[in-house]
Write a structure and sequence with these properties.
- With about 375 residues, the protein is an alpha/beta fold.
- The protein has two domains: about 1-145, 3-Layer(aba) Sandwich (Rossmann fold), CATH 3.40.50.720; about 150-260 and about 280-384, Rna Polymerase Sigma Factor, Chain: A (Orthogonal Bundle).
- It has helices at about 10-25, 40-50, 60-65, 80-85, 100-110, 120-135, 145-155, 190-195, 205-210, 215-225, 265-270, 285-290, 305-315, 320-335, 340-355, 360-384; strands at about 1-5, 25-35, 50-55, 70-75, 90-95, 115, 140, 165-170, 235, 245-250, 255-260.
- The strands form two sheets. A seven-stranded parallel beta sheet has the order 4-3-2-1-5-6-7, sandwiched between helices.
- Helix 5 packs parallel to helix 6 and helix 14 (about 320-335) crosses helix 16 (about 360-384).
- The longest helix has 22 residues, at about 360-384.
- The structure holds NADPH dihydro-nicotinamide-adenine-dinucleotide phosphate and magnesium ion.
- NADPH dihydro-nicotinamide-adenine-dinucleotide phosphate (NDP) binds near residues 34, 201 and 263.
- NADPH dihydro-nicotinamide-adenine-dinucleotide phosphate binds near residues 8, 9, 35, 37 and 201.
Length: about 375
């Protein structure tokens, strides 16, 4: 039995992971966590026979304690206590935002394998996270679909001489606004932005997909995970989301990973690694698909991808600043406090104000994140 902790179990990834756990006979769920949706969390604990949970929001934790006789951890050390006490073999980090970095650090510091959906951990603290995993021997298994695909493709070339893999390609669906020009995006609504054509996801990543910031974060994630230079990473728009990623090899071959867009596939791969598991999904039907389309990114309409790439290339604390400004701007857009195109404006203004540091520690990152949030909030007020 593999002992599993799911952090962010009440979210989109968390809920899908719980369905997989219920169907698996080799996974034992030992602890779960959420930010504030305590009723859903307790219902999950009861359904899955879990006796220990963590809740980030103190008031929600108190309500949960009053309603449930299991152990409810809260406070700044709650996730560390939860992870240590649960003695898991694997932690799934499905928290959204840079709030997930601490959980990544705790898990890897303990030498525990990590299934990582929280891409922001790698964007904000990539070098440190990768160094930590190497130092403790903990395995980092990507859950993001493109990165899960790349992980599998790269593994298939194990044992080949260095330089065999020349290029990694990530596909982007293009989001709900694919094909629109910049001026067509001025008045788009939150509902339109949340209406993703191929994936059902949480609110923040859905907006990131609409701005293409999601693909920008994923470029940084791929750079960190696979140690590949930005010049050897590319993004192509592929509206059907059937090809998740591709690697191009020295002998002229390219290998691609295909499947219907369903996050259960990469989640299950990470939870069961190195075994593959049977999922009741329809096999890919190429005849029925007929054709697959690919096109270039429109960088003028979707400037977030270039902003992320520039921050990734700059390195140091730049991706941390980019991510913090994006989180603040996306929250404001979801709250109807800014327009869609202002998301990129806030990020760009915050990056140009920030003092980027090239060498950093986790403490530096926390400070850079906090400062960037404050600057981004000021820019939001100025733009309003
Ligand atoms: P959701 O918003 O659906 O869920 C987020 C989860 O994190 C919830 O359980 C939430 O708790 C919890 N949470 C939020 N803030 C905090 C905090 N400050 N401290 C502790 N827990 C917190 O997000 P998704 O499931 O969509 O995404 C999760 C991560 O996976 C993101 O990093 C995303 O980029 C990545 N990802 C998601 C994909 C998807 O298909 N959804 C695809 C690829 C990657 P509560 O319910 O109480 O608010
Ligand atoms: Mg992805």
């Amino acid at each position: 039995m593999r002992r599993l902790v799911i952090l962010g179990s009440t979210g989109s990834i968390g809920e899908q992971a719980l369905e997989l756990v219920a169907a698996a006979d080799d996974l034992e769920l030992v602890a779960i966590s959420a930010e504030r949706r305590w009723e859903r969390l307790i219902a999950q604990a009861q359904q899955h026979g879990v006796r220990r949970v963590a809740i980030a929001d103190e008031q929600s934790a108190q309500l949960a304690r009053a309603a449930w006789d299991g152990e409810v951890l809260s406070g700044p050390e709650a996730l560390a206590e939860l992870i240590v006490a649960a003695e898991p073999d694997l932690v799934l980090n499905a928290i959204v935002g840079s709030a997930g970095l601490a959980a990544t650090v705790i898990t890897l510091s303990e030498g525990i394998d990590l299934a990582l959906a929280n891409k922001e951990s790698l964007v904000v603290g990539g070098e440190l996270v990768i160094e930590l995993a190497a130092a403790t021997g903990a395995r980092l298994l990507p859950v993001d679909s493109e990165h899960s695909a790349l992980y599998q493709l790269i593994a298939s070339e194990n044992g080949q001489p260095p330089g065999t893999i020349e290029r990694l390609t990530l596909t982007a669906s293009g989001g709900p606004f694919r094909g629109r020009r910049r001026e067509d995006l001025e008045a788009v609504t939150v509902e339109e932005a949340l209406d993703h054509p191929t994936w059902q996801m949480g609110g923040k990543i859905s907006i990131d997909s609409a701005t293409l910031m999601n693909k920008g974060l994923e470029l940084i994630e791929a750079h960190q995970l696979f140690g590949v230079a930005y010049n050897d990473l590319e993004v192509v728009v592929h509206p059907q989301s059937i090809v998740h990623a591709m690697i191009s090899l020295a002998d002229g071959s390219s290998l691609a990973h295909l499947g219907y867009p369903d996050m259960k596939v990469p989640i299950a791969y990470a939870l069961h690694w190195p075994q593959r598991t049977k999922l009741e999904l329809a096999p890919l039907d190429l005849e029925q698909l007929g054709s697959l389309n690919f096109e270039a990114v429109d960088n003028e309409a979707f400037p977030c991808l270039s902003l992320a790439l520039a921050a990734g290339r700059e390195g140091g604390t730049a991706p941390c600043v980019l991510n913090a400004a994006n989180e603040v701007a996306v929250a404001a857009f979801l709250d109807r406090r800014c327009a869609f195109l202002q998301i990129a404006e806030v990020i760009e203004a915050t990056l140009s104000d920030a003092e980027i540091m090239q060498s950093y520690s986790f403490e530096t990152l926390i400070d850079a994140d906090r400062a960037a949030r404050a600057t981004a909030a000021e820019h939001l007020v100025t733009l309003a």
